[in-house]
Fold Winged helix DNA-binding domain-containing protein.
Amino acid sequence: MSPSFPIVTTAERRNRLGRRHRLAPSAHAATVTEAADAVVALHATDAATLFLSARARLAEGGPAAIEQALYEDVSLVRLLSMRRTLFAVSGELAPYVDSSTARDIAVKERSSLLKHLVEDGQGLDADWLAAAEAAALDALDTLGPSTGSQLSAAVPALRQKITVGRGKKYEAETGVATRVIRLLAADGRIRRDRPRGSWTSSQFRWAHTEPWPTVPPAEARAEIARRWLHAYGPATEADLKWWTGWTLTDVRKALAAVGPDQVLLDDGTTGLVSPGDTAPEPAPEPWAALLPGLDPSGMGWADRGFHLDPAHRPALFDYAGNIGPTVWWNGEIVGGWAQRADGEIVWRLPADRGRAAEEGVAAEADRLARWVGEARITPRFRTPLERELVS
């Protein structure tokens, strides 16, 4: 006889998403760090995504509030971490993300760069790299927050060029500045500071900072898994492996440390939730959200079937599996949106969700347009529907 597990319906999963991801108005966050912690981490590969994801979860506050958290309070920090992707996390969580994920990435980044230096045959080695890194940090101490171009102008070593893939079809000459800066950031010795331009710009200045405190990796992974289960459960072992990029062994050890409960889902499969997190989730008030490409609520699971009709996927994802700008109604993706060159926010719902949904989405689109103001947003990863809406 199969074990009897508590049941979590698709409707309850959508209710959880609305409340725990701070998307229902009554659940909106008071601070930027609360908004980030609600989904564990905000995607930050695209500068605009970070701001728009936070906006959708905040009760109030414009871009300046998010800039304050990033660059003045430094209560929200960007880290190259899960799936070798740039995320923004709260300062409280950053040491756990660093120890659980970013440290391994930094080791691989260093090994890769050293390999390229040796293969180039100019005598560049680990000592040369250490000296270049030290010179870059000294320059930041002298100059203050600086762009990569400004650092290269100040540090001769960063103007060094090497040949990658010598003798192969993909042979190319490349500068080392970007790689050295990326490595310093991965090691937690520099951080992204205010960009040149507006909040939509990715041309960051860099600032010297101190590495994060060390947390035992197993402890760090357990903490990440615990927070992720609260935000994204019910979910599966495969979902957590996909979201983190950890090995299956590390995923299983982290989950064992958390001790999740199992629940039965509508399709007859089982999912994992935080210990004791099996009570029914009542519906919040009706809510609409316009989320940016790569938003955590669209990218939090390997299997998104409970909130996305598979028929809509081709229009809303790019060829590499990155989700584009989406329209949500009561915990379900019901369409997509875009911003035209004149600033107008346009959207489309492939299926009729009724008058309440149309009115709710229209009101949220107006709210987004007012928040964005004069800024113009083009997603880094463009999807068929987004392109169609702006054409």
Notes: Residues 94-208 form one domain. The mean pLDDT is 94. DSSP finds 15 helices and 13 strands in the chain.
